[in-house]
Specification:
InterPro entries: HerA_central (IPR002789), P-loop_NTPase (IPR027417), T4SS_component (IPR051162). It is a single chain. By secondary structure, this protein is an alpha/beta fold. The protein has 4 domains: 313 residues, P-loop containing nucleotide triphosphate hydrolases (Rossmann fold, 3-Layer(aba) Sandwich), CATH 3.40.50; 118 residues, no CATH class; 176 residues, no CATH class; 137 residues. 40% of the residues lie in helices and 18% in strands.
Amino acid sequence: MSEMDGKYFLGKVWDPKTGELTDEPLRYDSEDLTTHAVVVGMTGSGKTGLCVGLLEEAALNNVPALMIDPKGDLTNLLLHFPDLLPSDFQPWINAAQAKKEGKTEEQAAAETAEMWKNGLAQWGIAPERLRALADSVNFTIYTPGSSSGVPLSVMASLGAPGLAWEGNEEVLGEQISGTVTALLSLTGLKDIDPVQSREHILLSNIVANAWRNGQDLDLGELIMQIQTPPFARLGVLDVNSFFPEKDRAGLAMRLNSMLASPSFQTWMTGEPLDVAALLYTPDGRARHSIFYIAHLSEEERMFFVTLLFANVETWMRGQSGTTSLRALVYFDEIFGYMPPLGNPPSKTVMLRMLKQARAFGVGLVLATQNPVDVDYKGLSNTGTWFIGKLGTEQDKARLLDGLTSAMPGAVDVRELDRLISGIGKRVFLMRNVHEKAPILFQTRWAMNYLAGPLTRTQIPALNALRGVDKAAARPTAQTAPVEVAPAPVRPVAPGTPEASGTLTRPPVPSGVGEYFLPANLTTAEAGERHRYTLDPGAREAGVLYRPALLAQAEVLLTNAKYGLNTSMTWTALIPDPEPGATVRWEDNHNPPVDDRQLDRAPRADARFAPLSGPLADAKQLRTLEADFVDYVVRNGAVNVRANEKLKVYAGPDVDDAAFQAMCDDAADDQMQAELDKVKARFATRLRAAEDKLKREERELAEDEADFKSRKGEEYAKHAETLLSFFGGRRKSLSASLSKRRMADKAKADIEESQQTIADLQEQVGDLQEEMEAAMAEVEAKWDALMADTREIPVAPRKTDVRVRLFGVAWLPHYLVDSAGRALEIPAYAAGE
């Protein structure tokens, strides 16, 4: 038979009349699986063998499959040994069972190999078919929530899907609903109603907002946006009315506790939950991906199953329509996931898949050993039922009742009852809507060794059989060595600098100030300032804000006595203060921050580093603010320059030259007044002496004039006397002598006046010298007073300190890709 004819060899027809196996093979048309299939049978019915055989046929036909394995049975799909050597079987032999039967492991392995060889031969399955199976699809066992197999990261489920939002709102909305439901179920929430649950509504809107804008989310980002939603209203109500901040904080804490749990870390590593990659290798080879979930708790199983179906649905909606079987989704036990009552998170998406997957060529095969707890109405879209041996009459009655209610008029209850009642081990009733009547058949021999459920510890060896190395699994984020740039440049992962931080700004504690410092440097200026040479082709890949503690206070000092009226600004900027550490304010002085230059909001599409330590604790921040005020009070004293005698004071805003000029001005007036008194005291005496001098000078002038006149008269009389002498007259001689005496007297008067004037001039000079000495003494005294200055410290009181800025300051950093080096460079420069 051809391996690629689309006809699955599941066994041979069983004749219910004779109770014997016929030679007629049951070849099931794979396209019938597009209408899905259900397999029902008790433990030991051969259900696992049937399903393994069906999946083997799918592998031989290169049909990819996703398989959910809650019990460990599907691990057997990797145990195909074309050579049928005992050594191939021995590692998987149940040693305890062999010992119980009195056999060695080698004996048990040899017998098992022989049994398998004979069984395959009896069913006409040649070794070539086993080899074709081994060479068919890529087999991998995934262990979500564990590193035993290939780990699987669920974080990719919050990433923006490949589908455009516009035109696919309904499809993506359904994926969001399923993803959110799964996530909330993992936190322990029960009975989550997407329409009524405010938790579901909030998270769904957050994810939808991100996907609508083409933004990826991760769990950390989601937690941040729960606290600070990227929208103001939900419906007609504002967010805080619909879901108060305190309650949102509780939900965020619930998710954060899950994220912080060590047991959850394995959910965040490994291959992404990428359906296309799980169905096909990069070179296009079909894959059979087995999801082993036996180790998970009920909540974790529900989370993963819901998440997987939601992702499959979205991938499916992105495919073109087809009538051929494109892929299989097999679930080995649906008990609890599609109950008739209740609405667990998985049920909604599974029901949608049953209704819609056919159009996209995706077939669901659902198995259960519990026919009582199944939603038969939901399974009414199933085209094929494989019914094996049931445990009780109650199981049979429930199955028949369910089929009748789900497909009224299409089921011959009596005939089904008769056929089911006669079913034995490995015999199944196939009811296929594409066939005219139900068919009984016995399952063929499985090509894989059915070792039974295998444990988690055996999975590494199983994967190794098929060349799967869990260490080689594709990580969710590439890592590589980074170049350490000079401080304060922070290196980040090359090629993806924008991956740092979160798109959602972490909420600052209630009542705490929040400030956005501007990116006042260009990328080139930032690189140059921090001594980093950027490649000419360097590009800015984004902006990352890192939190810092900003403290800025204004000190206003006033003192009427000292005429003090001055203000000072104290600023400290402390990046990421350590928890519990004492802040050394003196080591973190910073140029004042002009609040007019602060950005009103962060840059669009910026990312944010997390808040931690004191910056995330309102109580610690209040303590630090009080400590900052105390520091300013202790260290904020200013020195007032004072001249107490002159009553002149100057604060720190007056320089030395100006202060000296103030002292000079104050002294000049008082000194001049005292000098004026000195001048006034000497003025009378000087005036009297000067008046006498002037009188003497006038008298001297008169005396000189009189002397001159007398002298002339004397000369005249002398001549007259001389003539009279010769004439014999005595009287003339006496008159001449009298004139001479008068001239001598006038001369004496002149000499007297001259002496008096000299005395008076000396007296005036002495007075002037005495006055100048007195004035010099006054000036010397005032010079000493002007030089008598000192500094008086004036300390602020707490009431003088006004805190203008205190809280979380977001410092912008450029994320730069420079020649393959990813750098984080501060974009803010203080004082620019």
